[in-house]
Amino acid sequence: MIYPSIADLSDKGVNRYMLSIATAKCARRITDEQLAKNQVQESRDDKFSSYSSAKKALANEKPVKEAIEKLYTREYKIVVNEEK
Known about the structure:
By secondary structure, this protein is an all-alpha fold. The protein contains 4 helices and no strands.
C-alpha cells in the first residue's frame, strides 16, 4: 500500500477520479523529464550505455510513487475548472 492515503491527498472538490488523472499526468511528466535527461546524457556518453542508464534511473524511484509524493507535498497542485 502506498502512503499517503486518498483522504490525505484529496482536497475539497477533488474526488478519486480527479486524483487518479492528476497522478497519471504527473507521473507522465516525471517520466518525460527523466527520459529527456537521459537523452542529454546519451549524447555525451556511449550510445550503448544510454539504455541501461535510463532503465536504472526509472528503477530507482517509480514515477507513480514520486507523483503521489509531489501531490502530497503540494509541489504539484490539482486545478479544478468549474465551468457551468
